[in-house]
Amino acid sequence: GDSVTQMEGPVTLSEEAFLTINCTYTATGYPSLFWYVQYPGEGLQLLLKATKADDKGSNKGFEATYRKETTSFHLEKGSVQVSDSAVYFCALSGGSQGNLIFGKGTKLSVKP
Amino acid sequence: NAGVTQTPKFQVLKTGQSMTLQCAQDMNHEYMSWYRQDPGMGLRLIHYSVGAGITDQGEVPNGYNVSRSTTEDFPLRLLSAAPSQTSVYFCASSYSGAPARTEAFFGQGTRLTVV
């Protein structure tokens, strides 16, 4: 079945460091791909998405490119801030109803 | 805007007790779903609904019931709570069908402990 694999954390970075969180997927067809973010004590929020191959999603300085040839959707940010500390989930839309299928999440901590 | 509202935020149950987790959205979304979040497991889909009167099972439906009598509400019922149901539960909704096409909005979660 469809699945998402993302790098395990936790990831600890210093402020202004470069961030990459790897995400690969297995799916039949051509799913949409998403990154959701969960700040402490809150629900998930959509960070960015891409709906077809070679699309680049971007938001709040984060970017991810839908790579069909490598089945990947890696999340990047050039300069992280303390306020980016959160858990990041990669997800795809799968099945006949397009339900979201999540990776296990990657916890990011950014130190001043 | 209220968005997706879940109640209660915290709950402790004894094994065998029943309870209902409430979820309401005020965005007129057709699609609603319930997930559970466990450490190291990510979010797993329990049940979902594509509209009033229509529900279906997700990845981990056992031990849970749902109904969708109105567009706004999608309660999740635990008929006989077990320690394995200790988790954080999230309700989500999206407009016009599945989250593939539109953004999913999540509630703040219900932290359930079964002792």
Description:
The complex is a heterodimer of chains A (112) and B (115). With 112 residues, chain A is an all-beta fold. Chain A has no helices and twelve strands. In chain A, the strands form three sheets. In chain A, strands 2, 5, 6, 10, 11 and 12 form a six-stranded mixed β-sheet that branches. In chain A, strands 3-9-8-7 form a four-stranded antiparallel β-sheet, with no helix packed on it. In chain A, strand 10 (86-94) and strand 11 form a beta hairpin. Chain B has 115 residues and is mainly beta. Chain B is 0% helix and 50% strand. Chain B has no helices and eleven strands. Chain B has strands spanning 4-7, 10-13, 19-25, 31-38, 42-51, 54-57, 64-66, 76-78, 87-94, 105-106, 110-114. In chain B, the strands form two sheets. In chain B, strands 2, 4, 5, 6, 9, 10 and 11 form a seven-stranded mixed β-sheet that branches. Chain B has a four-stranded antiparallel β-sheet with strand order 1-3-8-7, with no helix packed on it. Chain B starts with a strand and ends with a strand. At the A-B interface, strand 6 and strand 11 of A face strand 5 of B.
